Amino acid sequence: MSRGLRLSALLALCVAVAACPDDEGHHHHDMQRREYPQVPLAPPTRPLQWGDVNVIHTTDSHGWLLGHQKLSEPEPNYSGDFGDFASFVSHMKRLALEKDVDLLLVDSGDLHDGTGISDGFPVGGIDAHDANKFIAELPYDVMAIGNHELYIYAITLDMHQSFAPKLNGRYLSSNVNITVPDKHGNPVSIPVGDRYAKFKTRKGRKVTSLGVIFDFTGNDKNTTVQKVEDMVTETWFKEVIEEEPDFFLLVGHMAIQKNKWPLVFNAIRAVHPTTPILIFGGHTHIRDCVQLDGRSMSLESGRYMETVGWLSMDLDKRGSTGNLTFSRRYLDPNRVTYEWHSKRNNFTFDTAYGRSITKGLEQLAVNYDLNFVYGTAPQDYTISRAPYPANNSLITLLAKQVLPVALAINNTRADVPNLIIVNTGSLRFDVFAGAFTKNDQFTSSPFTNYFLYIPDVPAGVANAVLAELTKEGETRRRRDLELEAQRDAHGDVDHIYRAWLERMDSAHDAERRGTQNNTLGYVTSDACPGVGDDIPHTPLPFYSTPSYAASDPPAVSDDTLIDLVFDNFFEPQLLTVLNGVQSDKNYTTADVATYSPTLINAMFGQFAQAKWN
Ligand SMILES: *[C@@H]1O[C@H](CO)[C@@H](O)[C@H](O)[C@H]1NC(C)=O
Ligand SMILES: *[C@@H]1O[C@H](CO)[C@@H](O)[C@H](O)[C@H]1NC(C)=O
Ligand SMILES: *[C@@H]1O[C@H](CO)[C@@H](O)[C@H](O)[C@H]1NC(C)=O
Ligand SMILES: *[C@@H]1O[C@H](CO)[C@@H](O)[C@H](O)[C@H]1NC(C)=O
Ligand SMILES: *[C@@H]1O[C@H](CO)[C@@H](O)[C@H](O)[C@H]1NC(C)=O
Ligand SMILES: *[C@@H]1O[C@H](CO)[C@@H](O)[C@H](O)[C@H]1NC(C)=O
Ligand SMILES: *[C@@H]1O[C@H](CO)[C@@H](O)[C@H](O)[C@H]1NC(C)=O
Ligand SMILES: *[C@@H]1O[C@H](CO)[C@@H](O)[C@H](O)[C@H]1NC(C)=O
Ligand SMILES: *[C@@H]1O[C@H](CO)[C@@H](O)[C@H](O)[C@H]1NC(C)=O
Ligand SMILES: [Zn+2]
Ligand SMILES: [Zn+2]
User: Fold this and answer.
1) Res 151: pLDDT
2) Is it the case that residue 612 has pLDDT exceeding 70?
3) Pocket test for ligand 9, best of 454, 588, 589, 592 (most atoms within 8 A of CB)
């Protein structure tokens, strides 16, 4: 790309975020991504178990195609980028040829929303349209649609028009349709990709594949998600599963436990009691494995390219009824892991094709100006590895430093004492020590929440509101299964991921933590036989997160009138609580005004520019 073009792309972005510097001299553009691990990484210690049929699984990559680039533990363990992954897949394909076995590559959806590579597109663009071109270069056998492909119609349309055709019938959306105009301009509802795929493996094995999503209800207008229980009664579905393949390959965006997979599994088992069934799930961002019977295995492979899943199966004679031999492994995606398992070294690992993907992604980061440095974070700030309000909690940083600083910029009310309350759901990923870049702004808090305020609230009342919201947040997190089901249907899965971290943490007491040499990472205990993690780790510490957090209350008397500032996300709850803690005034939306036009997705950058430079 020419310099002129790059500059205009940069300027377009500056207009979009209204936060670019006028003096480039104060900010360096660090174009150099770490291409090779900068810390020594330990190799795995046991080879993968290969079978007749082997599958490499990715899921919920959410734009993390450049890998995790920070130096704080455990990030380097996930430092492999998609070019490295592409080279790995090539080498594994060659190994499969040598062993004369099948090797398939599958993905369970959620390609969008998570990093600047997907979300940092210029004005007028579409989330992940550019990044997905690199994904489509990998030899995926089957990919399935995720809920993050369905929140915005333009994204679903892009998947339908640009992405699905590149997969040649292997982008599956068994229960998801999109409405588009037909050639006469009349709306028609059709599958986003294909409903199913039937194909033969290199070894000539017949495969029937489906791509199913959970009962998602947060999808945009003109997209349709059919309930799984309705899908399995459809005529097309019954026809597709009627013929017996050598194995069924079910890939879908749905947790492998406590969800609707058994409906699909049972529908197939009713017709084919012993045909092998492989299930690859996703969406809840955890590592998990379960066997619905002895001739089937279900695998879920984490999130954010922090995990690459491996599954192998030995087949027996058609008509056999005994248990099949399976294995599964959760790999930490980095070059050392990839090199070790594909029997390569640092100098024989890269393929021209892998390098071209890495280079292409790096160029995309330059085009999106993702390496722009706002400032330098002095330490790690994590969402759940530190207790709130410790100073290394990201929630503390947001509530007590980022918001007070960012909201005061160009604000005529900055001199009025205030209490700022924020919903902690507006954080997505940890902030680590070192350069805080535009990409980090996208990963940490990409949301478009903004701040409202009510003037002249007595400080005592504002503090009572905070106390009440904190209490409510606590009880709400503990009970209310109904609310949880509602959140699940809308695709909010953070509570499931966090519960997994919590179980992991509480299973390892401090004593064992201290005597182990292992590095931090996931410690999976699932329902499948044997050890799943490729590399033993010590679990990440876990602390539960409050639903609400606030700036330090101003040092004023209870009857001093202050600004009560809050995130627009919970305006109705705030008004209810405010009217509950006092009866002097009936507050309504008419008392609420915009405090600042700055969106939360720009605030960390503004803060870093002001305080971390
Ligand atoms: C994970 O990364 C850390 C650096 O944070 C490194 O010391 C360690 O060796 C890595 N672990 C493995 C198993 O590769
Ligand atoms: C849905 O798509 C049809 C056909 O393109 C269009 O006429 C209609 O306005 C769309 N509906 C909504 C709510 O966007
Ligand atoms: C999906 O599209 C197919 C093909 O047009 C149509 O037959 C089916 O009724 C649609 N399903 C839903 C749930 O809208
Ligand atoms: C076969 O596998 C099932 C499911 O994993 C298990 O419950 C059962 O005990 C196994 N049977 C034998 C004979 O190993
Ligand atoms: C791997 O090769 C690259 C490129 O030659 C080099 O910069 C890097 O230091 C090497 N790393 C190791 C661990 O040998
Ligand atoms: C954070 O707290 C620790 C322990 O209380 C202290 O040593 C450290 O200086 C604090 N860091 C900052 C940036 O305030
Ligand atoms: C604050 O106002 C100044 C002067 O109008 C402007 O240059 C700057 O971009 C504004 N800052 C923010 C963060 O809006
Ligand atoms: C821990 O690591 C050190 C340094 O590599 C090694 O000398 C020691 O034997 C290890 N301890 C255990 C319990 O594995
Ligand atoms: C408060 O105002 C709202 C909106 O005008 C009204 O619906 C409600 O009845 C009022 N409540 C009280 C207690 O006056
Ligand atoms: Zn996801
Ligand atoms: Zn999802």
Assistant:
1) 95
2) yes
3) 588
Q: Evaluate whether the domain defined by 373-611 bears CATH number 1.20.140.10.
A: no
The pLDDT tens digits of the residues spanning 507-563 come to 886 546 656 678 899 999 999 999 999 999 989 999 998 999 999 999 999 999 999
Question: Between these two residues, 264 and 258, which has the higher pLDDT value?
Answer: 264
Site to substitute for ligand 3 among 172, 177, 212, most atoms within 8 A of C-beta: 177
Q: What number is the average pLDDT over the span 402-408?
A: 98
Q: Is ligand 4 within 6 A of the CB of residue 293?
A: yes
- Give the fold, CATH level 3, of 52-367: Purple Acid Phosphatase; chain A, domain 2 (3.60.21)
Tell me which ligand sits closest to the C-alpha of residue 380: 6
| CATH 3.90.780.10 intervals, the chain | 373-611
Structure tokens at 438: 């535009």
Nearest CA-CA partner of 51 in 90, 89, 102, 91: 102
Q: CA 461 → CA 77, 466, 558, distances in Å?
A: 48, 9, 8
| Ligand 4 contact via 529 beta carbon (within 6 Å) | no
pLDDT at 2 over 70: no
Question: Using CA atoms, how far apart are residues 605 and 436, in angstroms rounded to an integer?
Answer: 8
Cα-to-centroid distance, 428 and ligand 1 (Å): 23
